[in-house]
Write a structure and sequence with these properties.
The structure holds two protein chains of two kinds. Chain A is α/β, with parallel strands linked by helices. Chain A contains five helices and nine strands, in the order H-E-E-H-E-E-E-E-E-E-H-E-H-H. In chain A, helix 4 packs across helix 5. Chain A is flat and about 75 Å long. In chain B, the strands form three sheets. Chain B has a three-stranded antiparallel beta sheet. In chain B, strands 6-7-8 form a three-stranded antiparallel beta sheet. Classes of the chains: A alpha/beta, B alpha+beta. At the A-B interface, strand 3 and helix 3 of A face helix 4, helix 9, strand 6, strand 7 and strand 8 of B.
Chain lengths: 222, 390
């Protein structure tokens, strides 16, 4: 099967203005992947599905990955020549910058017809808060239907063009996205109305107004 | 109750409503099947819209058994997730273990000794036997044949579970595979018992098939019901016996050739019609092939260790990287997608659940059939809610 680099070149020959890059995988599995820019993703997906010699007709797996903001240290080395003629002096300049986080959706594609794969395609959102829309690939591969709903439910990626984008595993009234790395479980998840000391403590933390009212009432008692 | 033609149910998106010429045409009824209906194989729910008894729309509702397995996997070590994989598809813990162990081995570049590879094949094929036998029993139970077929199936299943128990200590939650091999070695007595079971299984299948395969009621209830076109099956990511019943001969044991499967000769049964009967039949034929694989593997299992001496279990870390690895489970392609950032826990732990994705086509299969057929079609998809909801 073709390498990701070869596939990238074929994609760029067909879509010259598309943003396609190869993401290397340093692990022993060496499953390198293709990172696609958002606007062309669905056209590229259709192209990959129908391309002779590749025919990726089977989208096996769709997974979300949450990447938080990361602090990256850039090291810049400058060499200053010694005027006295000695060895040049090397100065290392370290600058810290924050690489903004994003949500990533990874598609594992195979060909049932030609029996090869996987070709791994990734899409990334602009950030983790307000720019989380990606094109849905459900019109290309029907198997994405439930899996994209799951990514929407658990990660909060909004898929534009999905025929039925609803929560799938959590209930409809649920507000958060539990697979995000910074998700905090509410502390009254397993709240039970029995007056154990630690339960009452939790209730005080969680319903401060009620606790204050109760304290005020107790204060007025004769 | 009369519903006018501009009912929101009719204008809702979904498959085309079949025109029926009867005085009650247009009166659609919405039924919530499940989550506690005995035919839904656990806590699965379907919102079904009916025209008379005919299904015009069906929306599955998931999540009643959701515990966010994947989040638990991110919070525990690589090895710590192994017992949790038993609880995905709780009928097939051995194949779940293998799929997960294989993914971690590929992530870390870990080798597996020969004997362990054979033992894994033996356990996976035994799992396939018990899963398919139970499926046939459940399917007949859903058709209304209460008792006999299911009890026959459970009698045989119990023999396999006895083998699992004597090897791993647990009937269903085996927690048996490790990164770089298996947890314990199989004794010669165990292998002899597995051999005896394998040799006797063909006779049981003959008996079972005599009871079921030519059964007029089974044929009437399943033939031509819930046809799955091959093109839709491929596009919808349907895998396993359901895909092969639709006529696509795609078996990962052949395609990927993982483990030592290339050493064994076996055929891949493929259906012709893609209906519920084919889905039953493909599984019966697959069991016959599994018996052949078991006989070859039990006859040629080499001596040696079952764990790689270099394998690390405690304090296991994988180098940064990621892997997607899949095997042919009894229900379809079970895969694990792991992302490592070099820490003791996986950064991302994703399960590709075969029965969840096979349910994508449930609505397409059921529309146009009666509500009673829905139960049979669902039975032939072979779902386990521990895996669907995770």
């Amino acid at each position: 099967m073709e390498t990701p680099e070869q596939i990238r070149e074929r994609l760029l020959a067909r879509f010259p203005d598309a943003a396609v890059s190869v993401v290397p995988n340093p692990g022993p599995a060496a499953q390198h992947s293709l990172l696609l820019g958002g606007p062309h993703a669905r056209l590229i997906a259709e192209f990959l599905r129908d391309l002779p010699g590749l025919r990726l007709d089977f989208c096996s797996n769709v997974s979300g990955v949450d990447w938080l903001d990361r602090e990256v240290v850039d090291v810049r080395t400058t060499s200053i020549p010694d005027p006295a003629g000695g060895p040049a002096k090397l100065i290392e300049q370290k600058t810290k910058r924050v690489q903004p986080g994003y949500l990533e959706v990874v598609y594992h594609l195979y060909s049932m017809e030609l029996r090869h794969g996987p070709v791994i395609v990734r899409l990334r959102t602009g950030n983790r808060s307000d720019n989380v829309t990606l094109p849905s690939l459900t019109p290309v591969w029907r198997s994405c239907e439930f899996q994209e709903r799951e990514v929407f439910d658990l990660f909060g990626v909004v898929f534009s063009g999905h025929p039925d984008l609803r929560r799938i595993l959590m209930w409809d009234e649920f507000r958060d996205h539990p697979m995000r790395k910074d998700y905090v479980e509410p502390d009254d998840y397993e709240w039970e109305p029995t007056p154990h000391g630690d339960v009452l403590e939790k209730a005080k933390r969680h319903y401060p107004a009620a606790a204050q009212a109760q304290a005020a009432q107790e204060g007025h008692k004769p | 109750v009369s519903v006018s033609d501009s009912s929101p149910l009719e204008s809702a998106p979904g498959p085309q409503v079949r025109a029926v010429q009867d005085p009650f045409h247009g009166d659609l009824l919405e039924v919530s099947m499940g989550p506690h209906h005995p035919s839904t194989h656990g806590v699965f729910r379907m919102n079904v819209t009916l025209d008379g008894e005919t299904v015009v729309r069906l929306k599955p509702v998931f999540g009643y058994l959701h515990r966010n397995h994947e989040k638990i996997g991110e919070g525990t070590s690589y090895l710590g997730s192994m017992p949790y994989t038993d609880r995905l598809d709780y009928l097939c813990s051995m194949t779940n273990n293998w799929a997960y162990a294989l993914a971690v081995e590929r992530l870390a570049g870990q080798a597996v000794p020969e004997r362990a590879e054979y033992l894994r094949v033996i356990l996976a094929e035994l799992t396939r036997l018990l899963n398919h036998t139970c499926l046939a029993g459940f399917l007949l139970q859903d058709c209304g044949a209460s008792g006999t077929p299911l009890m026959y199936a459970f009698r045989e299943r119990e023999k396999i579970l006895d083998l699992f128990e004597s090897l791993s200590g647990s009937r269903m939650m085996c927690n048996f595979q490790r990164f770089g091999g298996c947890r314990t070695d199989a004794s010669p007595e165990w292998l002899a018992a597995a051999r005896a079971l394998t040799d006797g299984y063909g006779a049981f299948l003959d008996e079972y098939e005599e009871l079921l395969t030519g059964n007029e009621i089974l044929m009437a209830r399943t033939q031509g019901i819930g046809r799955l076109p091959a093109k839709l099956a491929v596009s919808a990511g349907v895998t396993g016996p359901m895909l092969r019943a639709a006529g696509v001969g795609y078996d990962l044991r052949k395609v990927d050739g993982y483990g030592v499967y290339p050493r064994f000769g076996f055929r891949v049964p493929v259906g012709e019609h893609g209906d519920t009967y084919d889905r039953y039949m493909v599984r019966i034929l697959e069991m016959r092939e599994s018996i052949g694989i078991l006989q070859q593997a039990l006859g040629s299992i080499p001596q040696g260790p079952v764990t790689d001496p270099k394998a690390r279990l405690r304090g296991f870390r994988a180098k940064p990287g990621e892997v997607y690895s899949r095997i042919e489970g009894p229900k379809g392609e079970i895969g694990f997608f792991l992302v490592s950032d070099g820490s003791p826990n996986p950064y991302r732990y994703r399960v590709r659940p075969p029965s969840f994705i096979n349910l994508t086509v449930l609505e397409d299969l059921c529309v146009g059939h009666s509500i009673a057929d829905t139960v049979v079609i669902l039975g032939s998809i072979d779902i386990v809610l521990g895996e669907v909801d995770r």
